[in-house]
Design a protein that fits this description.
- This protein is α/β, with parallel strands linked by helices.
- It contains 10 helices and 9 strands.
- It has one domain: 3-Layer(aba) Sandwich (Glycerol-3-phosphate (1)-acyltransferase).
- It has a 7-stranded mixed beta sheet, with helices on both faces. Strands 7-8 form a two-stranded antiparallel ribbon.
- Strand 3, helix 5 and strand 4 form a beta-alpha-beta unit.
- Helix 2 crosses helix 3 and helix 6 runs parallel beside helix 8.
- The chain starts with 48 loop residues before the first helix and ends in a 6-residue tail after the last helix.
């Protein structure tokens, strides 16, 4: 080092008190301590429904297989076999691309089958008209709750050859109900959007829709078997996907829960499209009569004007009306 260069000052000795700063006259200044930040444990997320229902379902299944009556065990095996024979796109865990889950569905179908066989004693005609591959089933709607759709679905699984899983198009408000949305998709239905319907049809699925919508489901007793206005959407989807339409007439559903109409203020409060004033707390054990008609094929531009589409829709509506009239004439009573 050059003698003319300044030497760096020697390092300051560490104060004996640990380096705390000092004020005048060497008085030590005590600084307030900052609180030490502690990492909070991550907040536990609520269990997903399947994390609860899965173990419960397995436990219920073991109890059912061991203790259930023989006719229920036989019916459960019949449903298992039908699901295994149905044309489904299931992965290794039993799910399909739209959320259907085999184990959950077989429990739901067991309840539906009990209603189909022993409560409503459904008589089904014309299932041989159900074609293989994609098909759009169009029917009349009634009964305050969608038990007519459930019975049509049970008929497709239990009596069609080969068995068919008939996909329901649920109302938009259903997934907002606790657990209902999950149960709906796990058992094979989807929210009734055009995109969902097109996806299902392009994969060769059978889809059921009720063009009357809520207008039909919540009819009063005096309006039974009077078809309400049909929407046009189903026809545009059939034309877009080149899908045959099978008309379905349901006799019996319109007497299962006699209604005086809808209580609109309560429906608005609950966010429901209607709140029917029914005269019975549970559906009456009326006898269902289902009839599947021959496939109807339509051609044309799905984006045509409404008046053009309405002409095609009217053909389907008239066919269902004829089938209803024939079914009402054949039956001997509401419960027979």
């Amino acid at each position: 080092m050059n003698e003319n260069e300044e030497k760096p000052p020697p390092p300051a000795a560490a104060p004996a008190d640990g380096g705390r700063p000092r004020g005048r006259a060497g008085r030590t200044i005590t600084l307030p301590r900052r609180p030490v930040a502690t990492a909070r444990p991550p907040r536990a997320l609520p269990l997903r429904p399947e994390e609860i229902s899965g173990p419960i379902d397995r436990l219920a299944g073991l109890a059912f297989d061991a203790l259930g009556p023989s006719y229920l065990r036989d019916l459960a095996r019949e449903i298992d076999e039908a699901i295994s024979r149905a044309p489904l796109e299931l992965n290794a865990l039993g799910y399909d691309p739209w959320g259907f889950q085999r184990d959950v569905a077989r429990r739901c179908y067991l309840i539906m089958a009990l209603m189909y066989r022993w409560w409503f004693r459904v008589e089904t005609r014309g299932l041989e008209h159900l074609p293989a591959g994609r098909v759009l089933l169009i029917g009349n709607h009634a009964g305050q709750v969608a038990l007519d759709a459930a019975m049509i679905g049970a008929a497709g699984l239990l009596e069609a050859n080969p068995p068919r899983l008939i996909r329901g198009m649920g109302e938009y408000w259903l997934p907002r109900l606790p657990w209902i949305g999950l149960l709906m998709v796990r058992s094979g239905s989807v929210v009734g959007t055009p995109k969902n319907c097109i996806d299902l049809l392009e994969h060769g699925e059978a889809v059921i829709a009720f063009p009357e919508g809520v207008r039909g489901m919540n009819k009063s007793w005096t309006e039974r078997y009077q078809l309400q206005e049909f929407g046009l959407g189903f026809m545009r989807l059939a034309l877009r996907t080149r899908t045959p339409i099978v008309p379905v007439a349901t006799v019996g559903s319109e007497e299962q829960a006699p209604s005086l109409g809808s209580f609109a203020p309560l429906a608005r409060l609950l966010g429901m499209p209607a709140f029917p004033l029914v005269l019975t707390p549970i559906p009456l054990p009326v006898r269902y009569h289902l009839e599947f008609g021959a496939p109807m094929w339509f051609e044309g531009d799905p984006d045509d004007e409404d008046r053009v589409i309405e002409e095609k829709v009217e053909e389907v509506k008239e066919k269902i009306s004829e089938m209803l009239a024939a079914g009402l004439e054949r039956r001997t009573g509401i419960f027979t």
